[in-house]
Specification:
By secondary structure, this protein is mostly helical. It has one domain. It has a two-stranded antiparallel sheet. A hairpin with a 6-residue loop joins β1 and β2. α1 crosses α2. The longest helix has 16 residues. The protein is elongated. It starts with a strand and ends with a helix.
Length: about 70
């Protein structure tokens, strides 16, 4: 029986089944964004992107997934 593979919820790259719905890269980026937003809750997506070095499209996708 082979490994169960699914796609990362953010970048859509195939990943092996893990307890997380994100690949390792997206999980680290998500943690950086989350930490920044906790410190600065009322900042723009552009500022979050600049400060965390995560592309703004990916930050927008994180917001969208977080609101579900």
């Amino acid at each position: 029986m082979g490994e169960f593979v699914r796609n990362c919820r953010l970048c859509k790259e195939p990943i092996e089944s893990t307890p997380f719905a994100l690949c390792a890269t997206c999980l680290l980026e998500s943690n950086r964004v989350q930490s920044f937003v906790i410190k600065y809750p009322h900042v723009s997506i552009e500022r979050i992107s600049e400060e965390t070095e995560v592309p703004s499209d990916k930050v927008k996708q994180m917001v969208k997934l977080g609101s579900n």
